[in-house]
Design goal:
Undecaprenyl pyrophosphate synthetase, alpha/beta, 10 helices, six-stranded parallel sheet, about 15% strand, single chain
């Protein structure tokens, strides 16, 4: 009980220190460590870890709303995850579908203007999950406050390949030659063909579980992002951990490559 009281006091102090700070407009989160959390705590299956992690997402969105974050990108399923066993993948995609549906149907999220957009190689997903993602996006399309991008079947390398393919298809359809495309190629021309087109690049990327790498998350978009790595597994991620990430961001001097 004393420990909980100390945490609450520390949390309030952290939150108060951020009220006048420059905070990120777009936060990307790599929700890592669900499986290890389940194994280390002796849960029945790794799916139990995924379920606990899924339950943490609404808390994160509440915190983002509280601190004025406009965009959140959540990496829920990578392209590599699609190669897991059929049984684990079926369980995982069901959890993702249930979670995204719950976020979309939450009346509090609706009143806050939440909007959901799925990003990734969606054609590679099971039909049922793809349908549920589309339904969630359709039901929240009028949201104009917190934009929640759910990265499902997402891989940064695949995104860049798909963007190059889309650019070539468009330019060749317009009658340009390959030589003309190559000569005029710039980052600004490729950016509209990314999965995340229309969304500002992430200011801050958080990865849980102690891993210090991006693993392909938002490779193009993260060129000037700030990174925060925490040892906490995603199911154990607390508001204090989120506030520490914001404090870390607020204390940095961003140079954007200059």
């Amino acid at each position: 009980m004393v420990r909980n009281l100390v945490y609450r006091i520390y949390e309030r102090r952290l939150a108060g220190s951020l009220r006048d700070a420059v905070l990120p407009r777009h936060v990307g989160v790599i929700l890592d460590g669900n499986r290890r959390y389940a194994r280390e705590r002796g849960l029945s299956t790794v799916a139990d870890g995924h379920r606990l992690g899924a339950g943490k997402i609404q808390h994160l969105l509440d915190w983002c709303h509280e601190f004025g974050v406009d965009h959140v990108t959540l990496w829920l399923l990578s392209t590599d995850n699609l190669s897991r066993t059929d049984a684990e993948l079926a369980e995982l995609t069901k959890i993702i579908g249930d979670t995204v549906t719950a976020i979309a149907d939450n009346p509090r999220n609706r009143s806050r203007g939440f909007r959901i957009t799925p990003v990734g190689a969606l054609d590679a997903l099971p039909d049922e999950l793809r349908l549920r993602l589309k339904q969630a996006a359709d039901r929240t399309s009028a949201g104009n406050r917190l934009h929640v991008q759910v990265a499902v079947g997402y891989g940064g390398r695949q995104e860049i390949i798909d963007a190059v393919r889309g650019l070539l298809q468009q330019r060749l359809a317009d009658g340009d030659t390959l030589e003309q495309v190559i000569a005029g190629l710039t980052p600004d021309l490729l950016a509209p063909h990314l999965y995340t087109t229309g969304t500002p690049d992430p200011d801050l990327i958080i990865r849980t579980s102690g891993e210090i790498r991006l693993s392909g998350f938002l490779l193009w978009q993260s060129a000037h992002s700030e990174f925060h790595f925490t040892d906490a597994y995603w199911p154990a991620f607390r508001k204090i951990d989120f506030l520490r990430a914001l404090r870390d961001f607020a204390g940095r001097q961003r140079r954007f490559g200059r």
